[in-house]
Design brief:
Blueprint: H1 6-30, H2 39-47, H3 66-79, H4 81-86, H5 88-91, H6 102-113, E1 119-122, E2 138-142, E3 145-156, E4 163-169, E5 183-189, E6 199-203, E7 214-225, E8 229-230, H7 236-242, H8 244-272, E9 274-275, E10 278-279, H9 284-312, H10 318-343, H11 354-364, H12 371-383
Helix pairs in contact: 1-3, 3-8, 8-9, 8-10, 8-11, 9-10, 10-11, 10-12
């Protein structure tokens, strides 16, 4: 099967040139000092249409598929994973649009496509990460509003976003096996650079994923209009589940981009770094490392292409998407570590981008479902669901 049509190659090439010209210099300047992505870069991403790749044309988006989304993502992640993640703040929430009513779609999607309405996603809590059904942050109805109280964790872009999509518990369930029921989603609009009224937050000190901040949030009588509930009350768990295949493909694309950046940097370094009178790229040990790295990257990419094609064709692929996310993220950690090794001591400094790729690659094994969660999904498909 030919995945890369002429149109897709053009999209890929355009994104590659954009990333190398506009993203890489900014990343090299700001990541070492943990600086924020500048608004000028966000505006350039918006001008390219990258926030609306999967948003339908009727709402001003490109109307393309997960395949094109992941092509662009890989190119951006090759330069800075944070930027590849930023475009999900429009595209990544398109999965929720099927649960929006007509007025909400009209109100929000056009602005998303233009990059004027970018979101943060607040699901995790101090005691609820992969165990989504264990959410305890609550909302109670008060006339035409809901009042939110509780704590959230790992909310990236909470300050810079135009809205926060938050999942909270609005109902009770007696059956412990059905804790996933009673969880609802709210889209809370807010000014950029601020948190919503009734919400306090502190940035979490991270070892990577710089360019923006990740927050711990406290909701204290945060009032939200009832019209901002997305989807059916108590059914947000299913809404989130619907978008997991695309989210995992997107994470695989980010991991592949990181690994490719590390590989390309390692090749360049191996050609110019000399030891014992010749470039280290002439030594078999280095050459075989690079060959193995390139092979693993291509294997992950082809699996990602298969998953993206399945998603765009409407074929269920939750098992394959889990495999793709698992393999790509584990591969990225190995490849970036090998690239750092090729750089030797220089790789353990902030003078080379390889340490950024290495730090960020480690995160891909954790967010959007840990490697262990992916293994659970895959093994449940193969062996049947386990209660352990």
């Amino acid at each position: 099967m030919t995945y890369l049509t002429e149109e897709r190659r053009l999209i890929q090439d355009t994104a590659r040139k954009f990333a190398m010209k506009e993203v890489l210099p900014v990343a090299n300047e700001l990541d070492p000092v943990q600086g924020d992505m500048p608004m000028a870069l966000r505006d350039k991403l918006a001008a390219m249409g990258y926030f609306g790749i999967m948003i339908p044309e009727e709402f001003g988006g490109m109307g393309l598929g997960c395949f094109e989304y992941c092509l662009v993502t890989e190119e951006l992640a090759r330069c800075w994973m944070s930027v590849a993640s930023l475009i999900a703040r429009g595209n990544g929430l398109i999965g929720s649009s099927r649960n929006m009513n007509a007025a909400q779609r009209e109100q929000w999607l056009r602005r998303m496509a233009r990059g004027e309405f970018l979101g943060a996603f607040s699901l995790s809590e101090p005691n609820a990460g992969s165990d989504v059904a264990n959410i305890t942050c609550r909302a109670r109805r008060d006339g035409e509003h809901w009042v939110l109280n509780g704590s959230k964790y790992w909310c990236t872009f909470a300050d810079g976003a135009d809205f926060i999509m938050v999942l909270v518990r609005t109902g009770e369930t007696i059956d412990p096996a059905r804790k996933h029921l009673g969880i609802s989603a709210f889209l809370i609009e807010k000014p950029r650079g601020q948190l919503p009224p009734g919400v306090r937050g502190n940035p979490i000190p991270k070892i990577g994923y710089f360019g923006w901040r990740t927050y711990e949030l406290a909701f204290d009588d945060c009032r939200v209009p009832a019209s901002c509930m997305v989807g059916e009350e108590g059914k947000a768990f299913y809404m989130v589940s619907q978008g997991l295949e695309k989210a995992r493909a997107h994470t695989a694309a980010r991991a592949i981009g990181l690994a490719r950046g590390a590989l390309e940097d390692a090749i360049a370094y191996a050609k110019q770094r000399e030891q014992f009178g010749r470039p280290i790229g002439e030594f078999q040990a280095i050459r075989f490392k690079i060959a193995q790295m390139a092979t693993e990257i291509e294997a992950a990419r082809q699996l990602m292409y298969f998953v993206c094609d399945a998603i765009d064709c409407g074929r269920r692929c939750d098992q394959e998407a889990a495999m793709c996310k698992l393999f790509a993220s584990e591969m990225a950690e190995r490849v970036t570590s090998e690239a750092l090794q090729i750089h030797g001591g220089a790789g353990y400094t902030k003078l080379y981008a390889v340490e950024r790729h290495w730090r960020d690659a480690r995160l891909t094994k954790i967010f959007e479902g840990t490697s262990e969660i992916q293994q659970r999904i895959i093994s449940d498909h193969l062996l049947g669901r386990s209660e352990a």
